Amino acid sequence: MSARTLRAVRPICKRLLLGPKFHVNTNKAFTTILFLRNGDGNGITRRSSLDSTRFMHGNKWLYTTEVSPKVDVNAVATADPLSIFNPPTEQITTGASPSVDTNSSSVKEEFDFAIVEMNRGLSRLTKWGNFVDIYNHCQAMKNRGIKPNTKTYNLLLQVYHREGLFHECIQLLHEMIKHGIPPDLETFDFVLLSTSYELTGIYREYIWSLLEKHDLRPSSLTYEHYLESFLVLEEFEHAVDVLDEIIENKIVPTARTFWQVTKLAISLNEADSAFETLLKFEKQYPVVLPTIYMETLRCASAHFHLEGIIHCWKKIVDDAKMVPDQGVCLNIINAAARFGKPDLATAVIKLLVANRIKIEEQHFAALLASYVGVGDLKRAFNVLELARASGAEPDYVTAMPITDLIKSDVEKIDDAYYTLEELHSKGRKVDVSALNAIIRACRFAVYNEETGSREADIHRAVETYNQAEKLNITPNAQTFEMLMECCLSIKHRLLGQQFMEEMRNRGIGTSPEVYTNMIQLLCTDTDYEDAFTLLEEMKSHDILPPRTAYEAIVRKCALHRDPRANIALEEMQTVGYETPQALVNFVRTGIIPNTNVLNYMRKEPAVFEGRSRKPNISVNPELDMLQAALDNLGGDNSDFNIPNLNQQDNYNSNY
């Protein structure tokens, strides 16, 4: 044997795992390689068959492999891969005289043994070989006149499916039917699975019709392969119909079938359908598969599907003892805030704390909103104090759900204040953000029928502010910002100046929002000289004046034909704010632009101005910074039972 042949044979030896030693027998027309696990071949018994030679070494049969002529890889790729499997026209012989009856039982038995041995070798090649090795093996079958059976075709279909050759799989199926080789369910399983590479679904339905013509009852695995194409093509409705058909036929779908349909629903953001599929899975499989439940929980939480959230949470956390990631937990808390489920929000926060995950301001804001959703202001105020004690910095945005709940009814505003007094009388610390939330609610307490807008109840706001010392609360900059908004609402300049002076006396750093509100308030009067003073004071404290401050001054000067309007307009452009064309025209002509247009330009500056050179830090007191996530509040809280927080008025730090 040449060195070239040995180099070609060595990889085959390793692939078949039959040991490092082998002998070569060149007495036959083709080369036979005898693999030995040990020893030198002494005492080996030889037995011949149609496809190979077997040797008995000790009590083990050792099989030989025939080295076929070298095949050109390019020729294999371009040739018809099915031609080598056509049934031979010659009769199968065993080397006997042509007059021997080939239909005798001995010949048939020899033939059966030959195809079994060849299928066994083909099976090994499908696992460890490559396409060229398989081609050579099948070519040897054809040359020796061995007719393939159903097992042979199934092995080849397995290879073709693995290579993504669905056209070739269909051709093999046609060849089987043409030559009278009956396909079985395994045959259709591989062919159906290969149709997932085809992007129309036509072949899938054609193969399914052939399966029905052969009177084969599909198995759960057959349906799983049938569904692969639907999943690839994202035919979700059809996939659900097939899943229902499987269940109606009293066939238990595979777990992978349920998972694939659920995953497709999740990818299409169909939270309802994903949860329905999960419920069908539970009826068939009374076990918890964490992957299915976790992904369904992720989808349900992202789309505020409350029923799916509660169901999957119990399965994952209570039964499987798993911990969802922080993003999922935050989505669940937000869903609890939307639907008024404080027990659910509390359970999530407890889980995060138990796993040493820091609770941020957004977690407390959602927990507060969940209590507001059920009208429990006492615990909502306690959440603000707990957030402050935990290192978070709650502000009026955090307490916005409280403001939204009480701002339209003065009785609710009073009840909220009395709740603060009750908490203080019980020795609880009242957070300043709770007081600010009530003052901000006073900003919208009065409805003006003439203008159709809501105005501030300035007396109630001032009285609430005066009770800060009684409640042991130290006002902060946001407190005065809320008060300035109330003054601006009713254009009470004198009261605004008093609050500005008191803020300075308390040593509270003036915020850009307070400056802006005061400038806008000054511009409501005929004497607006102090507005320029405040503008220069802002710049002296290295505070970039917001665009709304410049706009208020420019509009006021233009309305009074004050030439300083052009100066303010140029300075506005110098600091990086692009001016709306309507405002420029107003300065030039003195014609008052439509108020709605100016308001829209402030809300949507990118539509008119493009991208600014500096960040837009404009603050409009008429605009809410955050909408409360409380669309559908109410309902009972019986889904969770956490008595520590539901039955006590006091919060503690053992979350």
UniProtKB/TrEMBL annotation:
Record PROSITE patterns = PPR
Please report the residue spans annotated as repeat (PPR): 149-183, 511-545
Keyword list, A-Z: Repeat
Give the source's domain of life in one word. Answer: Eukaryota
Residue ranges of every copy of the Pentatricopeptide repeat-containing protein-mitochondrial domain listed in the record: 326-466
Report the sequence similarity comment from the record.
Answer: Belongs to the CCM1 family.
**Per its database record, what is this protein's job?**
Regulates mitochondrial small subunit maturation by controlling 15S rRNA 5'-end processing. Localizes to the 5' precursor of the 15S rRNA in a position that is subsequently occupied by mS47 in the mature yeast mtSSU. Uses structure and sequence-specific RNA recognition, binding to a single-stranded region of the precursor and specifically recognizing bases -6 to -1. The exchange of Ccm1 for mS47 is coupled to the irreversible removal of precursor rRNA that is accompanied by conformational changes of the mitoribosomal proteins uS5m and mS26.
Complexes and interactors: Binds to mitochondrial small subunit 15S rRNA.
Official protein name in the record? 6585_t:CDS:1
